[in-house]
Amino acid sequence: MKKVMMIGAVGAGKSTLIKALFGESERATKTQSLIYRDWIIDTPGEYSENPMYYRSLIATSHETAAVVLVQDAARNRNYFPPGFEQGFPVLTIGVVTKIDHPKADIDRAITLLRQALPEGEIFLTSAASTVGIQRLKERLMEIVQE
Ligand SMILES: Nc1nc2c(ncn2[C@@H]2O[C@H](COP(=O)(O)OP(=O)(O)OP(=O)(O)O)[C@@H](O)[C@H]2O)c(=O)[nH]1
Ligand SMILES: [Mg+2]
Q: Residue 30 gets which letter from DSSP?
């Protein structure tokens, strides 16, 4: 089975989202390195925030069916460079996390994500409330099984 790789800023909610995709609700710990779990690759947020790691992310993406760009709905900035999606040789999709958050602004999150991902699907999720998790899981399963 192919894999999908989650990328996004420190604290964007990647690991919590992965737990939610596996039906787990406990707290995620800080991701320190690439973590392979079943059909998902988790990455440390530092890899998306620091251009020094971009080559490593792109190299790892070659073994995936898709890269998921994760944007925190409660953040007012985007940590991906413009057009970042084009650097990856595989399908790229977007996920907005924490839509339950009191400071969530979904339109802003989509606008920020669109700078890195001009086209392509965007899923709206909350690991806390589980909104959007099942739909995302179904789509990702479809992608890894293609
Ligand atoms: N309100 C809310 N908070 C969330 C949600 N998902 C994650 N968080 C919080 O966001 C913080 C960071 O979550 P992580 O999943 O560790 O973030 P990460 O992207 O894996 O971070 P790194 O491993 O540092 O790259 C934690 O305090 C989570 O509790 C959500 O759906 N809603
Ligand atoms: Mg993490």
A: P
For residue 90 the two structure tokens come to: 């595989």
> Of all residues in the chain, what percent are helix, strand and coil, respectively (each to 5)?
35, 20, 45
Residues 85-104: tens digit of each pLDDT? 999 999 999 999 999 999 99
Which atom of ligand 1 is the closest one to the Cα of 42? Answer: 20
Query: Whose CA is closest to atom 32 on ligand 1?
Result: 98
Q: Enumerate residues lining ligand 1, CB below 6 A.
A: 8, 10-16, 28, 30-31, 44-45, 97-98, 100-101, 126-128
Pull the structure tokens for residue 55.
């080559």
Catalogue all structural domains in the chain, each as residue range(s) with its CATH number: 3-145 (3.40.50.300)
75 alpha carbon, closest ligand: 1
Mean pLDDT of 43-66: 97
